[in-house]
Design a protein that fits this description.
about 220 residues; alpha+beta; four-stranded mixed sheet; 10 helices; 4 strands
Length: about 220
């Protein structure tokens, strides 16, 4: 009996993209279910009652939540085309830097985008320091995963593509060739990979979505 795989996601979510990309890289057929996060479905609430968030992978009726947990689950269930490194130390480092992206770089970048001028300068400097630490992990190799894309490349897609969309909305250019030549070269390689482009949100629609969220966040911060 074939595996039944469903993914509850949202088109503009970088976390959904991570899971979609991993499934496509491994050639796993799946059903995608788009969620309206302003009106969450009863199935989403059933499958992820703790966080009530996307993405959620449902494999043969069993739900798995949180993008990083889902990626590891996928890698353990479907062994072909592994995304996590095979070496235990390399695997631990990939997990460490993925967590660094989610818990350090993304919040700092969000602060930089929303801050007023004086606070923004400090947040930009902090974010650039963090991005430089991450860039050092790319030294001497085309991808974080080595010769091919891996777990950390998938986790870092938010930096490759979502930062670019936010730049168009906010006007803050965090990642430049001058500051981060290695990261920029890596982003260029990602842009040439068909399976990634299949998963990326439509550019104009994505920009409009981010602009609406940015304006709502600024309005909330000023109240």
């Amino acid at each position: 009996m074939a595996d039944e795989v469903k993914l509850f996601g949202m088109w503009a979510s970088p976390y959904s993209l991570r899971v979609e990309l991993a499934l496509k890289l491994k050639g796993i057929p799946y059903e995608y279910i788009e969620e309206d996060l302003s009106n969450k479905s009863s199935l989403l609430l059933k499958y992820n009652p703790v966080h009530q968030k996307i993405p959620v992978l449902v494999h043969n009726g069993k739900p798995v939540a949180e993008s990083s947990v889902i990626l590891e689950y996928i890698d353990e269930i479907w062994r072909d085309n592994p995304v996590l490194p095979q070496d235990p130390y390399d695997r631990a480092m990939a997990r460490f830097w993925a967590k660094f992206i989610d818990e350090k770089i993304q919040p700092t970048a969000r602060n930089a985008n929303l801050a007023e001028e004086k606070e923004r300068e400090q947040a930009v400097e902090e974010c650039c320091q963090q991005l430089k630490m991450l860039e050092n992990e790319l030294q001497g190799k085309p991808f974080f995963g080595g010769d091919t894309m891996g777990y950390l490349d998938i986790a870092a897609l938010v930096i490759a593509f979502w930062f670019e969309v936010v730049r168009e909305v906010v006007g803050l250019d965090l990642i430049t060739e001058e500051r981060f030549p290695i990261l920029c070269k890596w982003i260029g390689k990602l842009q040439d990979i068909d399976v990634i482009n299949e998963c990326r949100p439509p550019k104009e629609k994505h920009v409009n979505y981010v602009r609406a969220r940015y304006e709502a966040a600024k309005a909330a911060a000023s109240n």
